[in-house]
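Minutes, project huddle
Topic: does the predicted pose make sense with zinc ion bound?
PN asked that the exact inputs be recorded in the minutes so nobody has to dig through chat later. Recorded below.
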Amino acid sequence: MLKLYNTLSRKIENFEPINPPHVGMYSCGPTVYDYTHIGHLRKYVGDDILRRILEINRYEVKHVMNITDVGHLVSDEDAGEDKMEKGARESGRSVWEVAKFFEDYFWKSVDTVNTKRPNIVAKATEHIREQIKLIHRLEKNGFIYITEHAIYFDISKFPNYTKLSGQKLEEKAVGAREDVFIDKQKKNPQDFALWFFTVGHFKDHTMRWPSHWGEGFPGWHIECSAMSMEYLGDSFDIHTGGIDHISVHHTNEIAQSEAASGKQFVKYWVHHNFLIVDGEKMSKSKKNFYRIDEIVEKGFDPLALRYLFLTAHYRDKLNFTWKSLESAQNALNNLRELIRGWDEPKIGCAQYEQDFIEALNNDLNTPQSLAVLWGMVRSDYPSSAKAKSILEMDKVLGLKLDEYLGKPLKIPARVRKLVEEREKIRKEGAFKKSDQIRKEIKKLGYEIEDTQKGPRVVKRAS
Ligand code: AMP
Ligand code: ZN
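Predicted holo structure (tokens), as shared on screen:
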């Protein structure tokens, strides 16, 4: 049975969906005002692994993800400027163009690390009606108040507002930075905006829609409540996001959704820990991030990054270093090389498959699942049995191992000749020359790895 850590209960729980075998899963998606970086990718690969584990447990998953293509206020440093509007101003493009450009880049990035596309992708700008509808429900239930600048959710009306984070309200006030322009008519500092009016501070905001309260644009949190409930119902099974979403975004989602429906919004909350660099979160604002293009330019296969993510548990921080990516690439190359020589898949290794699923069902223990995989690879089982099982395992790992299994690498004669030549020169100690040949081989699309058993040729990641 699948067990998941639920942020709401702060415990590992048995996973029992509301309406089996169906599972509704909502993932917070990107804000498309800047480039997707590999920190984001860790989160999306994490969601993908969760979805694949649900599927291998024979659940029918309906996966919904949003695209935040309308700007929102985020930090004091932005001096109250909307991220998307800022991106547009800085790049000389329209806000719509900015959103489209970075959305395309997002898809390109997540596709290269082999994540399955969600069944439904919901854009905030295409669901304004649903967001307004939800604000209406909140108005009817008496949870909102209106100032000159915005419509707010009144958190004093919602009991147990901080139940997801377990924080005290006073603690949260410190972290609540989103309404950075000072609205003196706001009742509690933690009250959050559902709708901003295009007046005063926001009079020049480009994206705007009519509503019967006045022209404006939605606050950030309302879109996720409105769109998840639209596609998955008032109560659904799993909601995912990064740990940074716990204390503000998801706390507010719960408040809005439950205040509107009177029902429990989400049964299991799953939060992914960060990819960090030198002890700090990889992020746009700290400018300490890498994009997938940079990984590829340095000669790595994007799937080596996926492999690297799998080596850490999703609730642990993962420190990114080039060295760790290199190790992941080597492990993946080794695996690919080994399985090239395997026979046609037959029967399978039942025990290993069971141990593999058990590891994953234990709160998505991917490092343990890789250990099981390697145990099987090194075992004495016939390669045909291992081949069958490795394909089964790859349904979750998503490393595209089928492209290598039983397919010996056909090295062109020219490359083979260069490898032999290099080996001879290297033995004579002419390392400079041998390095030149290595570069030549690289240009032809192959890499040489010097192992104890001699040089090994692998295809270069394109
Ligand atoms: P954003 O587009 O910045 O709102 O981020 C989209 C998602 O990526 C959120 O769920 C964040 O929690 C997550 N995220 C951002 N930076 C990182 C990081 N360095 N490591 C893991 N997840 C991240
Ligand atoms: Zn969200």
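Observations noted during the meeting:
- DSSP finds 15 helices and 16 strands in the chain.
- The chain has a mean pLDDT of 92.
No decisions taken; revisit at the next huddle.
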